[in-house]
Every structure is written in structure tokens, then in C-alpha cells.
Amino acid sequence: MSSARRLAAAVVAALGGAACMTTAIVEAPLRVTELDSGIRSFLREPLFGYEGNIPEQSRYELTGASAALARGEVEVARGSAETLLGIDPTLLPAAVLLAQTHLAAGQNERAVELLATPLADRPAYTAGQLVYARAAERTGDAVAAYGSYRGIAALDDVAAERAAALKDEAVRELSRRIAEALDAGGLSDAAAALERLREWAPGDTAAVDLGRRLARARGDTGAELAAIRELVAAGSAPLEVLHRQAALELEAGDARRGLELYEQLALRHPGNSEIAEGLTAARFTWRTRLLPESVRELFEASSLLRGDFAALTAWLVPGVRTGPAGSTVIVSDILEHPHRREIAWLLNLGLMEPMDAAVRRFAPDNYMRRGPALATLLRMPGRIGGGAACVGEAGGPAADDVDAVCEAALRCRLIPEPAECRPERAISGPEAVEALRRTLHLIQ
Asked: Over the range 151-170, which residues count as b (16 or more CB within 10 Å of their CB) and which as e?
């Protein structure tokens, strides 16, 4: 909708409202012998700052009506404004004059309603913005008032003075509105208001924190991390935000920095279980960053082969490479396999078993089933760790005892619920990595 059409609609609504309030107007005469100084300084000639051409007769009548208003003749000025708008509902200076009469009569809400939309795309229209801002201020809307005052502060001393006086209140109120919008899920409204807040108070800590909240709600980890880093640099980040920074550095930023942050937090808060768990996860994540590319590629595999699972286990669990030597198990079908060293480690520690010991076959290219995979992990506490009561028997349940494996895996929290056991299904890369991460809690 064009500015002219918006103005016409606003004028029609305003004049209709005036007709419905005849009784109220009669009860509050519009003749003012002398305008209050708190009003007079906000009234400029309606043409002041207006960019547009209007008929000479309209210009003449506006000037005369403005002079009448300055003398306190509110009813005369209002009659002239309504007459001009009856001729041309798109004549914005006449709407400004009408709003000035509302302000003079203490009808602040009506002045705001009349001008809010037509002035939206005319931020430098001094006379209009000044009367609108004063009316908004008197209704208690510091955000709208400050926005208008600020837009013409360089053009008008009164506006500059009021903008300076209202800034802190407006910034606080706008911050509150953004927070409410975020809580209500109004991300678009919050984003638009946040841009305004950043313009009004660049670098403001509250604005930075609101930006952090918006980024998190949007799932924008890069923007969230940038905001958190700014908060931390300013020395205004609570423990929750510091914890979040450590997690995000690991996920999307500097993994080494993330690990360092977790280590620092663990030292400062030794009794915090969430931080302790985060530190364990951070160490695991950092370890994955150091793996050979051929092993990292297995992380996303839809299903792992037995040789793949052996490689992942050997590289992600340090004790597999440094654990006590067991009996040497010889199998003939891994000699040319790229993961033969890792397979041998697991075989010699008794963590994995040949598929067929009689013919010395490991079958590295067969799918790794979830049951045998979980059985392998359940053997680790007894073979390379200090043991774990949840495993049950010291050596862990036999791989072919499916029920025992699933029950122990549930007790040890390697799986979240019984239905997740699915012992005959091939294990995927992500499933294996998560299960290995959980196993580390049992052996470290």
C-alpha cells in the first residue's frame, strides 16, 4: 500500500473516531488560552521537513491554521485540518496538524494512531516525527518515541534533547520486548527488533546476549559462538554460557580451545557432573580429530564390517593399543587386510573372537552385528580397565548369549532402552562411535 493510501485510511479512521466522540469533545473544550510549554516546543509548522509538493491554497491554509494553534485556538486549527483532509485525505501535513491538535488537547493515543503508519517511511519529516514522538512518549511508549526523536535529532534541538533523555529507557524496553518475542517463538519479530537495538546501542551487552539467544533458537551455531566469544571477552558470561562455549568450540569452532575450556571449567567446578561429562566427551571428540582420514570416514558408514569395527575400536580406545598383551591369536584371512594390525590387537586382548577358530578365519569383510559389537565393548572394563559392576561376570557375557548381552548393555548405559539392542542388525558408524564413547566412561 502506498504512503498516500495509508494516510487516507488513517485519516478516515481518525475522523470517524472523532465523530463518535462528539460528546467527549464537548465535555473537554478545545479552546486553550495558552499552550503548555511542554506542548508548544513540540509543535512545528506542519510543512517543516515535509518533502513533497502541495497546492498553494492548501499551503496558505496550513500556515494560517498552524498560527491559530500556536495562539491556543485548537478548535480552529482542528477544523481547518479536517477541512483540508476532507478535500484531500492524502495531504500528510494536514494529518500532522490534526495530530498536533490532539496532542494539545491531551488526546495522545489518537495522535499516535493517526501518524504511526504514514510516518513510517518518512523518518526525516521533522514536524510530523516530533509531534508523533511526543504523543508516543506521553502514552508511555519509550521505544516509539525514542526512535522518532533519534531520527530527527540532528535536525531539531528539542528532539536531540528528548532522545538523549529517553535512550536508556528505550534500550531497556526494547530489550525486554525482544526477550518476550524469543520466549514466545516470534523469531522474525525478535530479529527485526534486534537489528534496531544494535543500531541504537552498538556493543551493548544485553544486545549481544539477545543475539546469542536468537542464534541458538535459529540453530545458527556460528553466530551463537561469535556472540558468546564477545560476551566472554566483555567478562559478562555466566557459567551456563561458558559451558555452552566449550561445547560449541568443539562442535563448530576450535576443538583444541573447546577441550581447554572444559579442562578449566572442570578445575573450577569439580562437583559439576555436567561439566565432568562434557570434559569426557571433549576428550573423545579431540581424539577423533587426530584419527587417520581412513578411520574418520567410518564415522558415517551406514553399516560397519568386522574389520572396520576393529579399526574404530582400536583408534578410539587408547587402552586397546597399550593394554596388556594376551595370547597370540593367529588368523589367516587378515594378512592382506588394511586393518590387520588393529584386528590383531583386539584378538590378542580377547576383545573380539575369530568367526571360525577351527579354520583360523576372522571374516573381516562380514558385517559387524550389534550383539557381538556390544559384547566386545562389555569385555573392555575387565580386560583394559579396572572393571565395572554393571558388566556382570568379570569377562563379560558371551557374544552368543544375546539376552545377557542386551541386559548388560542396558545396565551399563551403552544403549538407552532394550529395544535399541537389536543384536542381529549390522551396527552403523554413528552407533558404534556413540557406544564406544559411552564405554570410555567404564574404563577411564
From this structure: bbbeebebbeebbeebbeeb
- Could you report the per-residue pLDDT of 13-32, keeping only the tens digit for each? 555 544 444 334 344 445 55
What is the signed CA dihedral for 89, 91, 97, 100, rounded to 10 degrees?
A: 70
Q: How many CB atoms lie within 10 A of CB 47?
A: 20
Rounded to whole angstroms, how far apart are CA atoms 42 and 135? 10
Could you tell me which of 137, 138, 146, 211 has the C-alpha nearest to residue 172?
Answer: 146
pTM: 0.70
CB-side neighbour CA atoms (13 Å) of 211 = 23
In whole angstroms, give the CA distance from residue 89 to residue 12: 8
Secondary element (H or E) of residue 217: helix 205-218
| CA of residue 211 relative to chain centroid, distance | 6
The residue type at 25: I
Under 8 Å CB-to-CB from 327, ≥6 apart: which residues? 348, 350
Question: Cα(88)–Cα(86) distance, rounded to whole angstroms?
Answer: 6
Residue 42 contacts residue 131 (beta carbons within 8 Å): yes
